[in-house]
Amino acid sequence: MTGFVGLIGRGLKHSISPLFQQAAFDHLGLDIRYEVWETGQSELPAVVEGIRQPSKLGANVTIPYKEAVLSLLDVVDRDAQRIGAVNTIVNREGKLTGYNTDSTGFLKALEQEGRFNPTGKSALLLGAGGVARAASYALLGAGIKSLVVTDIITEKVNELVSDLERSLVGRRELYPEIRALYQDDPQLEDVVSGCDLLVNCTPMGMKHSAAEGQSPLKASLIPKRALVYDVVYNPIETPLLADAKRAGASTLGGLAMLVYQGAVSFELWTGREAPVDIMMTVAREALGQ
């Protein structure tokens, strides 16, 4: 029987996940089809419920449902529960379990492709949504010394910072500084200039989006000494990364994170080791690189 995996979200027309995931299934000779399940808000419960069918192995979840999907699952993995966002669902005999592979993908890309060790460093995260949650918990686990989060929606920033602080209660070995910073705060320029790692976790600059061609940060503020990490993968070089290169900063795009998190999802669905090289090659070709 053919198995199916789907991508749940909105505005999925240009996603490359189906391409590199299908290439991985085909490379290993697995009779599995990766589909795009464009889903409206009111349709989400029914789409998730449909994953219980024997032919469905699971799904990926993307914007804007990574947080909304939690309440629709039977079990949420401990890390995903702590992060507060799910991007991978696995169907085990009709029981749905949610995982977050974004955190693993984020950190692996940062360390292997960006050659950046977060231990003892300072980071500024632009955005406080699902990806920012995964990134912030990954950085805490990797020993970041200072973490500042900013977003245009102050409630989301406050909620994330509160959750991060609660996660450290009783963990006496960790003493990172965690704080919220609002975008109109006069300290923003000083925080940006002093950070070792600047991460864009917003959709700003994403191709085929309302924010295409835009950057979440003024070019004049980009610190030359920092690594600028944009989790947006399409285009390969976002406006933020282009500005960062001109400023002389090191840069890292979001493609490696996308593939690495996808590889973990693949292994959860199949129990097989993901052919990461195949997935990366197909992903790069899809973006014309």
Compact summary:
The longest helix is centred in the last third of the chain and has 16 residues, at 255-270. The two termini are 35 Å apart. The chain contains ten helices and twelve strands.
Task: Give structural attributes.
six-stranded parallel beta sheet; Rossmann fold; 10 helices; six-stranded mixed beta sheet; single chain; 289 residues; alpha/beta
State the helicity in percent bands. 25-40%
Which overall shape is indicated by the principal axes computed on the Cα atoms?
globular
> Rg to the nearest angstrom?
19 Å
Q: How large is the count of helical segments?
A: 10
Query: Which topology of the largest domain does CATH recognise?
Result: Rossmann fold
Give the name of the CATH architecture of the largest domain. Answer: 3-Layer(aba) Sandwich
Number of domains: 2
CATH homology-level superfamily of the largest domain: NAD(P)-binding Rossmann-like Domain
Strands, count: 12
The SSE order reads EHEHEEHEEHEHEHEHEEHEHH
Q: Which class best fits the helix and strand makeup?
A: alpha/beta
The CA-CA distance between the termini, in Å, is 35 Å
Beta-strand percent range = 15-25%
